[in-house]
UniProtKB/TrEMBL annotation:
One of its GO terms (biological process) is carbohydrate metabolic process. It comes from Aureobasidium namibiae CBS 147.97. Residues 1-18 form the signal peptide. It comes from the Eukaryota. InterPro entries: 6-hairpin_glycosidase_sf, 6hp_glycosidase-like_sf, GH125. The keyword Signal applies. The keyword Magnesium does not apply. Keywords: Signal. This is Glycoside hydrolase family 125 protein. One of its GO terms (molecular function) is catalytic activity.
């Protein structure tokens, strides 16, 4: 509400928006007071009057608790800057739908790009899950969650194959220009007043299930899901899933199948367009797996059965099915049994097609095509193979996962980046030589090894160029060469990890990192 209030009151009470610096610039500069550790980390929270959402529980309880648990001044400073980042900077607008007076909407930007990604917004909110309780107040965290879910439902109902979206018309905020997308050829066509970019990524669809089950799990608020457009959105998603389940490059008689989605872009980057005039590389039918044209990095897949996205979808179908069950099926055509069944089909597909043997050990492939080709790698963006237990798909002690993890965190993974600044998984999005702290965070979230966790924390602390924010990627030999100064999701995820360690490994947080 704060952002809304400030923009409404600004002309009256003289808090000109211009007085709040653009966080895009603010995040590249150092601000006092500096942390008292060797890294001399900047303070990066905006002035309280410029923050976009006020959550007293975070200020009065969580931050003091973590301050007590984390005596190291640099580690605490990084938490203090990073964890509130989405609330501080990314709630661009919060309000109501024009056609239903009490339907909350939250437009949550990814950070440095003025658009809302389905994946990012679901994950930005997930960081605050430990703080979420049932609450009908419009000032509550629960209301922010509901607003994101309602807006995502609207986006999915109009453009289910798109990944990033424009502000809702109710906000009065002008749509952002996306020069990279202006010449895209996409089928089905879309409206650029509501869509920012239209790359079809399976995990974007799964992200809607993720935030839905996250909200339900924490609040038990089933009534919310029976109002507005949630059931309609799930029904629509199921039509898409059925289309995708039946899809393959060729019909059984050899004819090329009509694809439900095609995309081409003129670009000098191979990962920005799809081969075969927008179809992508051929994939075989009846595998149980669902195709994804792009990865969670927004890069094109090489083989379209992206295993981590299928893992994510399987788990979140299972996690969302109880909502459908609790709604008693009265208004729905999709049943919880259908959701569980689709998840089981995907799980069988992963077991049958997604596992390959490397050096005598079974490992999960990043991508397969159903013909026998497999891409052995990982990409830092979640869903990744490294994150499979974090996604809830499998137990961290799963043998195939442990084999996969060992391979991915070694030079057998073509996108494992090494260097004196930080060693972590990267990806083609920023290219060889750039490691992603997000992958170090996931490594910590999936580890029980105190030495490994401590080492990763040290690397993350060393990778902020003194700015005290989590960057997207860093040159492993030069920490001043980094990408994205304002990447809210990664910041929130870092905080989520600190809260996880506070429960699981308080002795690690009690250490000095000086
Ligand atoms: C900390 O960084 C600031 C800004 O770069 C600098 O002015 C200050 O001297 C540094 N302090 C120490 C102790 O290094
Ligand atoms: C609901 O959220 C509001 C705003 O954060 C807070 O003031 C209030 O205490 C919360 N109520 C409950 C029951 O948690
Ligand atoms: C939408 O597309 C039209 C026609 O290509 C273009 O003139 C306009 O600038 C685009 N709008 C945005 C927000 O990109
Ligand atoms: C595109 O979306 C805008 C905003 O939602 C709407 O006003 C406009 O009518 C839409 N255009 C078409 C052709 O559907
Ligand atoms: C929330 O998730 C946890 C762990 O997966 C589970 O044990 C619990 O029963 C869930 N709660 C609800 C209300 O679904
Ligand atoms: C494929 O698309 C073409 C052109 O849109 C259409 O004429 C044809 O009937 C479609 N074929 C199938 C099998 O749906
Ligand atoms: C579903 O049915 C149960 C048992 O009849 C009832 O307690 C519950 O309120 C119903 N839920 C909804 C959302 O209607
Ligand atoms: C724990 O992690 C350290 C550092 O990565 C590694 O050297 C060690 O072998 C690991 N221990 C076990 C039991 O895996
Ligand atoms: C972090 O940087 C400090 C100071 O340069 C160095 O002593 C330490 O070994 C680094 N830690 C890691 C894990 O790289
Ligand atoms: C490190 O990166 C910065 C920023 O890109 C660049 O200006 C500098 O020259 C690089 N340093 C070295 C030693 O390559």
């Amino acid at each position: 509400m704060l952002v809304h209030l400030i923009s409404l009151l600004a002309p009256l009470i003289g808090i000109a928006a211009a007085q709040c610096p653009d966080y895009l610039d603010y995040a590249t500069l150092k601000h006092q007071p500096y942390s008292e550790g060797v890294r001399n980390l900047s303070y990066q929270r905006p002035d309280p009057a410029c923050r976009t959402f006020d959550l007293p529980l975070l200020e009065n309880k969580i931050i003091p608790h973590v301050m007590h648990a984390v005596p190291d001044p640099d580690l605490f400073r990084l938490f203090l800057n990073a964890y509130p980042n989405t609330l501080d900077t990314a709630v661009r607008w919060k309000g109501y739908a024009a056609d239903s007076a009490d339907e909350e909407l939250t437009f949550l930007v990814t950070g440095d790009i003025d658009a809302m990604w389905l994946r990012d917004s679901a994950n930005q909110m997930q960081s605050y899950l430990p703080l979420l309780t049932a609450n009908s107040s419009v000032d509550s965290l629960a209301s922010l969650f509901r607003g994101v879910i309602n807006l995502q439902a609207r986006y999915l109902l109009t453009s289910p194959y798109c990944n990033a979206f424009q502000p809702p018309v109710e906000s009065g905020i002008a749509p952002a220009q996306n020069p990279s997308a202006s010449e895209d050829h996409v089928f089905p066509t879309y409206n650029n007043s509501s869509v920012f970019e239209c790359k079809y990524e399976l995990d974007s669809l799964a992200a809607f299930l993720q935030i839905s089950s996250d909200y339900y799990n924490a609040t038990g608020d089933v009534a919310f899901f029976g109002k507005y457009h949630w059931v309609e959105a799930i029904n629509h998603l199921f039509e898409i899933f059925e289309t995708l389940s039946a899809a393959a490059t060729y019909e059984p008689d050899g004819r090329v199948q009509n694809s439900s989605y095609t995309f081409t872009r003129v670009s000098n980057r191979a990962t920005e367009t799809l081969s075969n005039d927008g179809l992508g590389n051929p994939y075989r039918g009846e595998t149980g797996l669902l195709r994804s044209a792009f990865r969670p990095s927004d890069d094109a897949t090489i083989y379209q059965y992206l295993i981590p996205a299928n893992m994510m979808l399987a788990h979140y179908l299972e996690a969302t099915a109880p909502i459908m069950l609790a709604l008693n099926g009265s208004t729905c055509s999709v049943t919880s049994a259908q959701m569980i069944q689709l998840a089981a089909t995907i799980r069988r597909g992963i077991a049958e097609y997604g596992i390959v043997t490397i050096g005598g050990k079974q490992v999960y492939a990043y991508e397969v095509d159903g013909y026998g080709s497999a891409n052995i790698m990982d990409d830092a963006n979640i869903p990744s193979l490294l994150s499979a237990p974090f996604l809830g798909y499998l137990d961290v002690n799963d043998e195939v996962y442990q084999n996969t993890r060992a391979l991915l965190l070694s030079d057998r993974n073509p996108y494992f980046m090494r260097g004196p600044v930080i060693s972590a998984v990267g990806g083609p999005h920023n290219g060889p030589g750039y490691a992603w702290p997000m992958a170090s965070i996931v490594r910590i979230l999936t580890s029980d090894n105190d030495t490994e966790i401590t080492e990763q924390l040290g690397m993350i602390l060393n990778s902020t160029d003194g700015l005290g924010l989590i960057h997207e990627s860093i040159n492993t030999f030069n920490q001043t060469d980094y990408t994205r100064q304002w990447f809210s999701w990664a910041n929130g995820l870092f905080g989520q990890m600190i809260l996880d360690l506070q429960d699981r490994k308080p002795q690690i947080l009690a250490q000095s990192f000086q």
